[in-house]
Amino acid sequence: MKNFYNLTKKELLQEKEKLQKQYNNYLKQNLNLDMSRGKPCKQQLDLSNDMLNINDYISNDNIDLRNYGILDGIKEAKQFFGNLLDINEDNIIIGGNSTLNMIYDVIARLYMFGYMDNTPWCNLEKVKFLCPVPGYDRHFDILEKFSFEMINIPIIENGINMDIVEDLCKNDESIKGIICVPLYSNPTGTCYSKETVERLAKMETKAKDFKIFWDNAYAIHYVYEKVELYNIFKACEKYNTQDRILYFFSTSKINFPGGGVSLLAGSDNTIKDTLKHLSKQTIGYDKINQLRTVKFLKNKENTLKFMDKHANILKPKFDIVLNTLEENFSNNPILKWEKPKGGYFVAVDTLEGLAKKVVVMCKELGVTLTDAGSTYPKKQDPKDSNIRIAPSFPSLEELQEAINIFCLCVKIATIDKFLL
Amino acid sequence: MKNFYNLTKKELLQEKEKLQKQYNNYLKQNLNLDMSRGKPCKQQLDLSNDMLNINDYISNDNIDLRNYGILDGIKEAKQFFGNLLDINEDNIIIGGNSTLNMIYDVIARLYMFGYMDNTPWCNLEKVKFLCPVPGYDRHFDILEKFSFEMINIPIIENGINMDIVEDLCKNDESIKGIICVPLYSNPTGTCYSKETVERLAKMETKAKDFKIFWDNAYAIHYVYEKVELYNIFKACEKYNTQDRILYFFSTSKINFPGGGVSLLAGSDNTIKDTLKHLSKQTIGYDKINQLRTVKFLKNKENTLKFMDKHANILKPKFDIVLNTLEENFSNNPILKWEKPKGGYFVAVDTLEGLAKKVVVMCKELGVTLTDAGSTYPKKQDPKDSNIRIAPSFPSLEELQEAINIFCLCVKIATIDKFLL
Description:
2 copies of one chain form a homodimer.
Chain A: H1 9-28, E1 33-35, H2 42-46, H3 75-85, E2 92-94, H4 99-112, E3 128-133, H5 137-145, E4 149-156, E5 159-160, H6 162-171, E6 175-180, H7 194-202, E7 211-215, H8 232-239, E8 245-250, E9 262-265, H9 268-281, H10 287-297, H11 300-329, E10 335-337, E11 346-350, H12 355-364, E12 367-369, E13 386-389, H13 396-419
Parallel strand pairs in A: 1-12, 3-4, 3-6, 6-7, 7-8
Antiparallel strand pairs in A: 2-9, 4-5, 8-9, 10-11, 11-13
Helix pairs in contact in A: 1-13, 4-5, 7-8, 11-13, 12-13
């Protein structure tokens, strides 16, 4: 492995010629490989097929779940998720198949009606949101849809730069929220430390209706190492700031992304306020699927064991990506990344100004990556360097080929930059 | 049967004494009967139990429906519903389990973002909606939530008073929509005539973004007589007003109220505009349940046969209500009603000022009815006379007892009014 920083111009040109030949070879192969979305693969989905054979519809307390009613979700689902996530079951609302939809709905309600007796956000001159970056594109898309101003907050080793967060929230009333994926974060794999959670719970906010969108999408989705997230409800209780919590979770990446169950948890006030609005919006979510989900996953212990099976499928895929990156770049520091402990992604940083180019080159060779910039609000990566790699969906063989091609494109793009 | 209008004061007092004894007898029985909500009964729900044994998840075009994707619904569901309702499948979006949620979402989008490049309704001084009355309480609740001004439009024999509708829409730009249940209407059972549909399609509206919310909830839910609704898409095509259609339907009262599939249909523009917003809101609805629904209902012919089974269960219940009303009031015109051809309700009108009193009296005897006034916006029935009777859920025996009690209470309340 050559360190490009130590090569002469001539050597770089020679290297480029060699790499270009490989590139041209790939070009002829008309490949079609996809490392773009964090989708479970077929083998993972098959783990839950027995769920589809569950045909019960009577709840433990003898309610016919085929019929209308039960706005906030069935009791056994609240108990199951409460126990799994260490949240009081009375502080949970069980929803439909999409957390994203739940997040959107919560934001729409705050926008149209406001939180409790606070001003609806649509009546404010400006609403700002803090966005840890790199982050989840669909979160940013929702915030952009509502024309909120998004402020980038750097992700750091064990969370986010809380000095900046505290300073901003303390002084700016128009900052109404922050949206976080606190464990195995999308795409960096970052796990928020106890200190980060505590500072989020404790910090002063000028906005009285400041909200922490706590999208714990990967709460139990470890790959290499189980990390325990400090309980934000417990942290907020200490400072009497529970009303700022909006906690989301779903079974999309436990069972079926297309047919899972989502969850919103919040303080007593938040649940009461949410149900007041929700009662006008729907009569209730799909309770048969709630029961199906709980009957299949059974309890916390069984669910955690079940997640081992996912980890066993995902680990070889993450190994391929991480080992290949290591082989190509450990002594050639033109690409940087952290090994994630879990989640669905490996985030890499090219040298400045190369991410878009690399993604386009990969696409030319038939390898689809998430668009460069997608991990930043409005798709604007100020350094044009972050790329999100999603290893879960392709087969091992496809993934190996795709990541080889990715490394090739990074090298060519970097040599071109050096030769400029 | 005595006609109260022909009785002397003395005879009314004698009648009241007799009825009051019956009332007191019921009072001792601590009954618990419910004619309040349009819920299918257990026997109806049991018709669809086989649906829960369907465990397929691969679409006809070989897509794995367990995974993410397909925002607008699976192809076979669009084909099935398009064929069932005579709507172009490209003009259909398949949703989650609740039409009400879909209606709420559509209104929220018009409120927050506006239709195409029209002003979002939240930025307007005033938004008014036309509400055919008596109507569906949950529709009115949504409109009230958004602080829209609701204007009562009288339901007449074959639809609604279109003279009033045309006059209002032509002259008032702030009138943004009308919300209709055009077939076997809730609660009157009214079926809109071809003329009514055509006039809705043809009429001039001062608001460019005027919308007809066409909640065809009972499209195939006949009890006594199958009525064909004139196709509003065809009507609007003639006048190039397709953009005003927002068509809703669901399988809630075909299969399971808690686990059905909903549908939104609209013009090409409406579908395009809706998907633009919806793509930020969710990745997709529960496609496994969409497939389950279609595999169970199969096709139009089978579905219509299936609805015969519902009708066979519902007919004896409607018979009990209608026959008992007939027996009690055919020669004593203190209560008025129309025999519905289908749907879930019988709407009755007491003499002015008696509906609330009757509902309270029934409640005292253990018979729950929908709150008086519920069939009007803000629960304000100007004549306090309309009561919605929902015969579907109780058993035949319970229903007979409940409707007997209802008739008794109507008589006592009416005598009290006469004696004032």
